[in-house]
Write a structure and sequence with these properties.
The protein is mostly beta strands. It has helices spanning 41-58, 62-69; strands spanning 2-20, 28-36, 78-80, 93-100, 107-109, 128-138, 144-156. It has a single domain (2-184), classed as OB fold (Dihydrolipoamide Acetyltransferase, E2P). A hairpin with a 5-residue loop joins β6 (128-138) and β7 (144-156).
Amino acid sequence: MEIIIKNVRLSYPTLFTAKEFKAGDGKPRWSAAFIIEPGSDNDKHIRAAIEAEAKAVWGVKSAAMLKSVTGQSNKYCYTDGNTKANEEYKDMMVLATHRSAKLTRPMIIDRDKSPLTSEDKKPYGGCYVNAKVEIYCQTGENAGVRASFSVIQFFKDGDAFSASAPSADEFEAFEAEDMDADDLV
């Protein structure tokens, strides 16, 4: 089931170049996590989509299946942020999404819907985005509730997470005259 989530914080984005989750696994993918405020409209839409998909795929077993996978990060895409080490996840929910490189590249767009590239430096971890996500249930040996995304729209700036925004604060400014010949080698 596809839903749109709005004005959510983006975390751990891999949006422009698909990467393998485990080096050498041969399964490149794009990925993004979305930080969701509990009780918000986004939270309600995600929970409703999970419930609807579970009923559609697992039928009368849906409640038992959801209970068995909830809280398992490798089987359930929507987790309590308090179970994670990330400070920005505290008291929030986190929707983890992935998109296989076998599919078309996700659309990454600006507020005006113009395409963005990695050179645009947005979206980035810590900014706010709108996203089209798909919630789906997987059956079989690796049964679980998963999420994918197809479109991410930059919504507004936010405080960048440390891994997202390089800083030169540790460096001192200097002039070429301050250097001697040995510094140039």
